[in-house]
Each structure stands twice: as structure tokens, then as C-alpha cells.
Specification:
Structural class: alpha/beta
Strand order of the largest sheet: 13-16-19-11-20
Shape: elongated
Helix content: 25-40%
Number of helices: 21
Strand content: 15-25%
Distance between the termini: 72 Å
Length: about 500
């Protein structure tokens, strides 16, 4: 007799159903697992055997074969422990086989029979809507966010037996808490830098990529750190999308889901796999963990050149394919790239009293580490001048984060209504083709200005379209239905700003 249970194998944020077949047949006593298991899956034999022994259940002196189907799909991770144990328990008639036929199970077993939480419970639940999901109690609150799935989350394998034998049925798990405290850092903490603050507001409103260039201590990192306080909370749909990626990376805290937008800031020594994704199991990288949020890359030219070049496609397409010899997975990565850079290696190129003898060649060489195609993808480029220490005693100027966030939310609400029926578009940064032409074409004066700028400075087609997108966002911040010349002029000023970046 063959008893079946089910589990999942992950391909990015997608989860594919895996049938766990258990056959107990006469022959020499053995316990084998087939179907392209990795080391962690193969070691399940010892963990399952020990867990059953802890429950005073002895395996029969027969041949036990576990097949993970489809056999050509690689299976990785310890989450196959629980479905293997459930299939064996059903094969031994400890629990009714018909009770486990339709369930999907995932969870790691300890040697004493307790269940250990595993990553990926949320995407597993989302993929198998309509089925019952059996998982450890530590993963239950996470999976229960998918309302179409009934989640049973026992603490031990013994509790699984008591539940399916009717001795002590378990109630479905409840969703975890909404986590995350609002960012309290305020734009009012930044003295001066009004132009940079304005660029930050525009970037937040339309999800535009932004580059700050300025000497050390001018406030580039301080400005970027206040960006989360300008962004509206994640919508329920966005929160689920983002949390599924974080679930695969094991970053959800006690099953809670955050409504705060991700703000990732990797160090400039990060590897390509850390930024883009990869490693064992092709895990998501920083660009995917920043999905629907912000990726802040300080000391931008110090990142390895291959790492920087890998950003070119994801910032355009909003997803990334991690292709390895044993894995080929796609992750979403619709993020806002905010980068900060010094104007040269020493950082003082703009200060004649402190600049080195290689000015201006040192600045060209340093920012030259950022390739032209990658630089072309920044919508906003801002020079951040140094702030004199005497300016630090000046009264607070400008608007606080709460006021700016209100304008950003109003601009994003206009965009949400505009693109409600446009596939794959939520904000102005997503608009392209006929949609962009329809919503962002300026008035006659604006078109004339943009034409002159394109001819004078040799804007690429990408640069031309990015100016249109930024102009549309500036108009939205003004609550204007039309894109006017003033909006185009401001967008162009950010496009051509920056030391040697035009």
C-alpha cells in the first residue's frame, strides 16, 4: 500500500506541490528517500526515526521507501521532515490515511519529536489555497495570514497524532501581529539642504531612483535615513508580496507581518549573491528584500563593479532571475534605489583648500566607476554641498516628515487612481509606452523646453522618458492634471545635476 501526503518545493516565491509517497513492503529492513533529495532531506531519515522512537513508536522490520514526486524536481531543506513523518504514521495506521490525503505539510523535526519552525510557510500557504496546511506552531501565525487556507500548527509530532486521531483536535492558527514601529527620524533634523529634501520628496512620491553626490559630512546618509518616514505604509497586497520574500529569507518575526516599507542598506563589501540573490537554494538578495521599499547603497562607487552592473536590469524590469547550475528562480524586486557617493576618493574635490593635486581627474576616475548605462537609470541626481558649522545654529527650516508624507500620500493616491486599470503599473516610475505618452506629455512650452534640452545635452531615449516620468510626479505633487513647463524645468534640473554626471 502507498500512502500519500504533500509538501512543497520552492522556486523563488512560487511553491510547487510535492507528493510524499510512503511504501512499506516486505524485505530487508531499510529506510530510503528517493526523488533528488539534498543532504538535509536525506538526513530526515535519522530525525524521523529518533522522533518516532521518542513517541515509543518503533519502525517495522520492513523496507520503507519514501518517494518525493515529481522525481526530477530538486528538493532542498529540512521542511520535508514533517510530511515524511506524517506519511509513515499513516502507513503504520497510527493516524487515518484518509485524513492526510489532502493536507500540505512542512516542518523540521527535533530528535525529541518537537516541531521546529521553517522558512517559507507564507508562500507555501499562498500557493496551496483551499488545502489544509500543517506546520509547526512557530510558523502557524505566519501562514495564517492567507485567509483561504486552514492552518493547523501543532507544537510536536505527538500533537499531530492526537489531532488526526481525534483525541485532541487543534483549532486553526490565528494570524500573527502587525509589527514594526513608525520611523521617528524627521526631515527637520537636517539643517539646510532644501534642494536635496525636495528631491527626496519627489523620489518618494513616484518611486524614482535617486543619487546624492557630496563631500563627507554633507548629510547624504542622514537624508536617506529619513526616507522611510516619507513613505506611506504598505497596502495589504504589497505587505503580503513583501512578506512572502522575507519568509523565504527567514526574516519574519514570530509570524508577524510589517506594514512598513523595507529599507535595506547593504555594506559596500557585499557580494553579488548577497545583493542580487544566490547561494545555496538561490535565496533572495537585497534587491528582492527591498521589494516595495528602498535599497540604500552608501559609498556607491566602492561596490564591486560587477555588483553595480547587475543592478541595471532589475531597476528597469522590477524582477530578477537568479540562474545557477541547480536553480533557476525569479524574484520580484520593484524597489527605489537611493545611492550616495563622494565626488572623488578623498571627498574634497569641491573644496580648493583641501582637494588633492589630481583634481579634477580624481573625480572623473572615481565617479567613472559608475558606468554610463547605470548612471542613465538615475532619475534624480543631486549635488549635496557641505554645511558650514555656523549653519547648524540656524532655526529649523522647511517642512517636517509628517507634512511631506501627506503630500507624498496624496500624489500616490492620484497615481493609484490613474493606473488602476493598467497592468503592472502602480506609480509613475512604472509608466511606459503609450501609457506614459498619454499621462505625461507636457504642454506646448514644456515640450519645446524638453526638445531643446534633449538636443543640447544629448539625452538618451531612456533619459527622455525618465524626465517625463519625473515631470508627471512633480505635477502630481502640485495636484495638477497637466504637466506644465515649470514641472519639466524642475525635472530637467535634477537630470542634469551632479558633478560630471550630465
Amino acid at each position: 500500500m502507498v500512502v500519500r501526503a504533500y509538501s512543497v518545493a520552492f522556486e523563488g516565491v512560487e511553491a510547487r506541490l510535492v507528493e510524499v509517497q510512503c511504501a512499506i513492503s516486505p524485505g530487508l529492513p531499510s529506510f530510503s528517500i528517493v526523488g533528488l533529495p539534498d543532504k538535509a532531506v536525506s538526513e530526515a531519515r535519522d530525525r524521523v526515526r529518533a522522533a518516532l522512537t521518542a513517541m515509543s513508536i518503533a519502525l517495522p522490520s520492513k523496507r520503507i521507501t519514501i518517494n518525493l514526486s515529481p522525481a526530477d524536481l530538486p528538493k532542498e531543506g529540512s521542511h520535508f521532515d514533517l510530511p515524511i513523518a506524517v506519511a509513515i504514521l499513516a502507513g503504520l495506521s497510527v493516524i487515518p490515511a484518509e485524513e492526510v490525503e489532502g493536507i500540505v505539510a512542512l516542518g523540521e523535526l527535533s530528535l525529541d519529536g518537537s516541531l521546529v519552525p521553517v522558512s517559507g510557510a507564507l508562500p507555501a500557504a499562498a500557493a496551496e489555497a483551499g488545502r489544509t496546511l500543517l506546520c509547526p506552531d512557530g510558523s502557524g501565525p505566519e501562514a495564517a495570514w492567507v485567509s483561504t487556507v486552514r492552518v493547523i500548527a501543532p507544537p510536536t509530532l505527538a500533537a499531530v497524532v492526537r489531532h488526526y486521531s481525534g483525541q485532541a483536535p487543534l483549532a486553526p492558527a490565528e494570524p500573527g501581529a502587525v509589527t514594526g514601529a513608525p520611523d521617528t527620524r524627521d526631515l527637520l533634523d537636517v539643517k539646510g539642504q532644501e534642494r536635496a529634501k525636495r528631491a527626496l520628496e519627489i523620489a518618494a512620491a513616484g518611486r524614482h531612483h535617486l543619487l546624492f553626490v557630496g563631500p563627507p559630512g554633507s548629510g547624504k546618509s542622514m537624508l536617506a535615513a529619513r526616507l522611510p518616514g516619507l513613505l506611506p505604509p504598505l497596502s495589504p497586497e504589497e505587505a503580503l508580496e513583501t512578506s512572502m520574500i522575507h519568509s523565504l529569507a527567514g526574516l519574519l518575526d514570530e509570524g508577524g507581518i510589517s506594514r512598513l516599507r523595507p529599507f535595506r542598506e547593504p555594506h559596500h563589501t557585499a557580494s553579488m549573491a548577497a545583493i542580487v540573490g544566490g547561494g545555496k537554494g538561490a535565496k533572495p538578495g537585497e534587491i528582492s528584500l527591498a521589494h516595495n521599499g528602498v535599497l540604500f547603497m552608501d559609498e556607491f562607487p566602492e561596490f564591486a563593479r560587477p555588483v553595480l552592473e547587475t543592478l541595471r536590469q532589475p531597476v528597469e524590469t522590477g524582477d530578477v532571475v537568479v540562474a545557477r547550475a541547480n536553480a533557476h528562480v525569479r524574484y520580484p524586486c520593484r524597489f527605489m534605489l537611493v545611492a550616495a557617493a563622494n565626488p572623488c576618493r578623498c571627498g574634497h574635490m569641491t573644496d580648493p583648500s583641501r582637494a588633492c593635486a589630481r583634481v579634477p581627474q580624481c573625480g572623473e576616475d572615481y565617479l567613472g566607476r559608475i558606468s554610463g548605462p547605470l548612471m542613465d537609470r538615475f532619475d534624480l541626481r543631486v549635488d549635496v554641498p557641505p554645511v558650514a558649522f555656523t549653519d547648524l545654529d540656524l532655526p529649523v527650516s522647511g517642512d517636517g516628515s509628517a507634512t511631506v508624507r501627506g503630500r507624498v500620500e496624496a500624489a500616490r493616491a492620484r497615481q493609484a487612481a490613474r493606473y488602476a486599470n493598467v497592468p503592472h503599473a502602480r506609480l509613475n516610475a512604472d509608466a511606459e509606452g503609450p501609457v506614459l505618452t498619454e499621462v505625461a506629455t507636457p504642454d506646448a512650452a514644456g515640450r519645446a523646453l524638453l526638445t531643446r534640452v534633449a538636443e543640447r545635452f544629448g539625452l538618451s531615449a531612456r533619459g527622455y522618458h525618465r524626465v517625463l516620468r519625473v515631470s508627471r510626479t512633480i505635477a502630481d505633487l502640485d495636484q495638477s492634471d497637466d504637466v506644465r513647463e515649470t514641472h519639466v524645468a524642475e525635472a530637467v534640473s535634477y537630470r542634469l545635476a551632479g558633478a560630471g554626471m550630465g
